[in-house]
Amino acid sequence: MDKQLLSDLIAFTGIETQFTDAWGNQSEVAEKNLLTLLAAQGFAVDNDALAREQLLERQQDHWEQLLDPVSVQKAGHDIQIELKLPIALANAPLELVLTTEQGKTHTFTVTATDDADLNQVMVFDGEEYQQYQWTLPVLLDQGYHSLSLTLGELDFVQSLIITPSACFQPAEFKKQKQWGVSVQLYCVRSDQNWGIGDFADLRFLLGHLAKQGADFVGLNPIHALYPAMPESASPYSPSSRRWLNINYVAAPQMPGFDQCKQVKQLVNAPGFQQQLDAARAAQWVDYSAVTRLKLPVFKALYQWFIEHQSEHAELAAAFSVFKQQSGESLLQLALYDAIHAHLIQKDSHAWGWPVWPEAWQRPDSDEVLAFAKAHADELDFYCYLQFIAREQLAQAQAFAKEQGMLLGLYRDLAVGVSEASTEIWGNPDLYCRDASVGAPPDILGPKGQNWGLPPMLPYQMFQQAYRPMIDLFRANMQNSGALRIDHVMALLRLWWVPKGAESAGDGAYIYYPIQDLLGILALESQRHQVVVIGEDLGTVPDGIREILAEYGMYSYRVFFFEKAEDGGYVSPAHYPVQAMATLTTHDMPTLIGYWHCGDLHLGKEVGLYRDDQLPGLFESRHKDKQKILDSLHGHQMLSPHFDHNVDHVGMSTELSYAIQRHVAKGSSQLLCLQLEDWMEMTQPVNIPGTSDEYPNWRRKLTMTLEQLSEQQNVNQLLQELTRLRRN
Fold first, then answer.
1. Which tens digit of pLDDT belongs to each residue from 88-142?
2. Together in a domain, 422 and 559
3. Which residues lie closer than 8 Å to 710 by C-beta, 6 or more apart?
4. Burial of 410 (0-12, 13-18, 19+ CB in 10 A)
5. Which positions ≥6 away from 271 have C-beta within 8 Å?
6. Are residues 221 and 316 in the same domain?
7. For residues 420, 426, 431 and 433, what is the CA-based torsion angle, rounded to 10 degrees?
8. So what's the pLDDT on residue 500?
9. Residue 52's Cα: distance from chain center in Å?
10. Beta carbons within 10 angstroms of residue 21's beta carbon
């Protein structure tokens, strides 16, 4: 391809041609990878003339929009409006109508050559377009406003979003530091759940930890998955990030559970009880078994609700309001789940809409619309489950606040959705299906990672006025005190891996409009009173942490990654205040797993490491452990009599608690620990870079919540953590 054309295409699509890798080395993106990614976005890379024509068409489309679809600006500053005009309109008076979020309207007449500043000129097919900048003569409050311009039969509308300068921070943060625990909800064992952790378990955990002085419980993504295909269980590859995983609904807490005769017959049947006992006792979460237990009960309880609406008018009214407020997105999810259930009964390979018969691949096809009409009750059933899920989550958050927790729940927002998702089914133009989100080789994934998540197209995000992102932030800030954004660098750039690439390393970064997205995030954060935490691990570009900090976002600091220039470990006392400190994550081994190199042994078993890599990795881990031990002794976190030589030290309760106390004494505003380490577990929940090699997202806790709550040594540790965070 012509070098200038290639450069123009790269600039237009936001591809980064070089980057600094996880080890600090400068890496160039191979030209073949650049071409593959351009092809994934629809450019004819094997035909220069056609590719040039495609680029010009997209550029012209942009210039023919007199107003951009969206403009994001900060409150307290002059509002700058950009007008793109054909030269014939430069001297014409134009009428602009501003409608504020509160419904107040202002009308302005603007003549570009008289009232605005010319800042750019473009020519297409001999026609000149001029871009002017005009200062809006009113100050706007934070919020979502609308600016419109009518020209003959053409209407141009801009979403004008005025944002705060930073995300929400509670006033209590100035008084003391907070701590809490993170949990993969599905892995929770209890005496009451049905083989998978649920919202009733969550309430129990919140109550217990609140008594010990904790301020929050962090959750894995609880996004909607696939009821018809329960083994597709990764919380980071959801069907929809706006809706909830119905398997987290606690059936015994649903309306009618104690009154419904059909449910009593189902639950009390000997076969049901046997299956329930087996699901509870299983070492790994058996998602199919859980779904077989829950779905028939859910359907019976929905039918009970339909038959008893008149006796439960308040519940019926709340459900009606929920459906009305949720709009098209909820109906689309329900429709997708209903169709998926029907098709997969006929063909077990019907894993998602990309392989469905063509007539079913669009939600607006005649066949789909006919199905929706014929199966209205089934769609309503899935809507009802989302309603109940939201209610149970809301009750858990309300309970946490009643118990004195400052934040209560913090939720986790996954970086994308799977190819089979209802989100892509309903809005295919927004996504690039010929590429996948992932990560270049780094410490957590030495071969790179391909997550199988089609990325959003930055241009389409802009054309859709960032509406999908606004809806996404809003949905995930409901019923929570904090929101963790997984792989927060995605707001700046994402690693795209082309379909068919030999490895995850054969990709490149593509840039996103970070200032706009952070502004919207800050606006929603302030409105929902939700703290935002950014998971800024892996390959972190220069300057991103500074930008996130400026917007009031909390950084993520993992103890094992915080190394000083001399190779030792940074004291937690020197961590940034605006951060959440933690020991491990869902992509890392437990404390015991780390100390005993379980992750390296597992990595060898599943083929993550070459044989020649392992000696160096074991040696490096041994040196790191010695430095950790030295640091703990240096900070008087261990008894002087505790062995100073790592060759003689295995992970013990004493050492584990010392590490946790050490981090608890640190300066970071937030501290997050994991239940696994209090139970002294060895196996990880996930091995990055694997799919079938290890049962990711299925490992259960080794204790029930009831057993954990009775562990006096753990409770003493928790009370000590509270004391350390309060001082």
1. 999 999 999 999 999 999 999 999 999 999 999 999 988 999 999 999 999 999 9
2. yes
3. none
4. buried
5. none
6. yes
7. 40
8. 86
9. 36
10. 13
Instruction: At 76, list the tokens.
Output: 């307290």
CB 20 within 8 A of CB 541: yes
Rounded CA separation 560/551 (Å): 26
Reading the block at residue 702, the tokens are 């080794």
Q: Is residue 67 part of a domain?
A: no
How large a percentage of the chain has pLDDT more than 70? 100
| CA angle in degrees (0–180, nearest 5) for 370-376-382 | 120
Residue 68 belongs to some domain of the structure: no
Answer for the pair 671, 533: CB distance below 8 angstroms, yes or no. Answer: no
Report field, pTM of the whole predicted structure over 0.90: yes
Would you state the structure tokens that stand for residue 662, as one six-digit string? 């050490």
Query: What is the edge-to-edge ordering of all strands in the sheet holding 79-86?
Result: 79-86, 127-136, 117-124
Whether 32 and 81 share a structural domain: no
- Which residue do the tokens 């640190």 mark? 666
> Per-residue pLDDT averaged across 571-583, rounded?
96
265 has pLDDT over 90: yes
Return the closest-CA partner of residue 571 out of 637, 622, 617. Answer: 637
CB 436 within 8 A of CB 452: yes
Packing angle of the helix pair 712-726, 653-664 (nearest 10 deg): 20
Q: Please identify which residue in the block is written with the tokens 């042994």.
A: 601
Per-position DSSP letters for 149-170, written without gaps between them: EEETTEEEEEEEEEE-SS----
* Dist. CA 324–CA 317, nearest whole Å: 11
Which structural domain range is residue 183 located in? 171-726
Helix pair angle (261-268, 270-281), 10° resolution: 60
Q: Is residue 247 part of a domain?
A: yes
Q: Are residues 100 and 186 in the same domain?
A: no
Of the candidates 62, 86, 101, which is a domain's last residue? 62
Domain for residue 219, yes or no? Answer: yes
Same domain, 180 and 156: no
DSSP bridge pairs for 131: 84, 120
Coil/strand/helix, residue 518:
helix
- CATH number of the structural domain spanning residue 720: 3.20.20.80
Report which secondary-structure segment, H or E, holds 490.
none
* pLDDT in the model for residue 146: 98
Structure tokens that stand for 92 in this block: 């014409």
* Domain end among 163, 184, 213: 163
Q: Looking at 153-285, list the stretches that DSSP marks H as alpha helix, in order from N- to C-terminal side.
A: 199-212, 261-268, 270-281
Total domains, the chain: 3
Location of structure tokens 């008076």 = 93
Dihedral sign computed on CA atoms, order 226, 227, 231, 235: positive
